[in-house]
Amino acid sequence: MPAPTEVWHTIADGIELRQLEAPVLPVQVARIDPSKVRFVVGYDPGAPRMLSAWAAQYSALAAINGGFFDQQGEPVALLISDQRAIGASYVGQGGMFAVDESGTPYLWALSERPYDGSPFAQAVQGWPLLVRTNGEAAYTGEDPQRARRSAIALDRSGRVLFIVAPAASFSLAEWSQFLAAADLDIAIAMNLDGGSSTGLITPGEQTGRLIDSLVPLPFALLVLPL
User: What pLDDT sits at residue 3?
Assistant: First the structure.
């Protein structure tokens, strides 16, 4: 089981940070109380920017990269930004993180519950699912390539977790197994775009995190004050 290297540190109302021991560099985790913040998907394929720039533009309390995108900056799966739906949903694979008008977050496996067009305020889709609702590792594919990784999860108390491995420490299967074993009380987790897109930004010179993307991003998931 991944060992904790820090306790949770509160950096803003509703946002806590922690790190977990991992090969090369610790895995960074932001735990977010959805009752105290709001989630926004920033989307601008015509002017992609570094994750740090997305965070600065919105004065975000936290920011993480989103799902996969093509060479034109368009999402390869469904994205919902301020109620505007872009792209087409994954079918029979991956997962979906969505926030309704009241700010309640949801995360589910699209193989178990295909997206039916229900309205949401914000949403991102990712692939593959990493942790199932029974807490087990969900991805066991043969993929030896290790890369920077990012994921989004819900814990059993309904809090949202942004999780980032800033070094090329994990294959996808290893990432799935690591998260399933971590003492984060994860109920379900899905993968986000990794590699050069990976990033996690939270404020604070002493306690914040600055793991910037290595490339400009056409969209990002942002946490803002109420």
Answer: 46
Q: How confident is the model at residue 42 (pLDDT cuts 50, 70, 90)?
A: very high
- CB atoms near residue 37 (< 10 Å): 22
The pair of structure tokens assigned to 165 is 């491995």
What secondary structure letter does DSSP report for 189? E
Radius of gyration of the chain (CA): 16
pLDDT confidence of 193, banded at 50, 70, 90? very high
C-alpha span between 77 and 183 (Å, rounded): 30
| Domain ranges within the chain, ordered by starting residue | 14-202
Report which secondary-structure segment, H or E, holds 58: helix 51-58
Contacts of 68 (CB under 8 A, 6+ apart): 75, 76, 77, 126, 127, 193
Q: In what order do the strands lie in the sheet with 95-99?
A: 84-86, 79-81, 122-126, 95-99, 105-109
Per-residue pLDDT, 206: 61
Sheet holding 186-191, edge to edge: 9-12, 15-20, 27-32, 160-170, 147-155, 186-191, 129-131
The rounded percent of the chain whose pLDDT value lies above 70 is 96
- Give residue for tokens 């971590």: 182
pTM recorded for the entire structure: 0.95
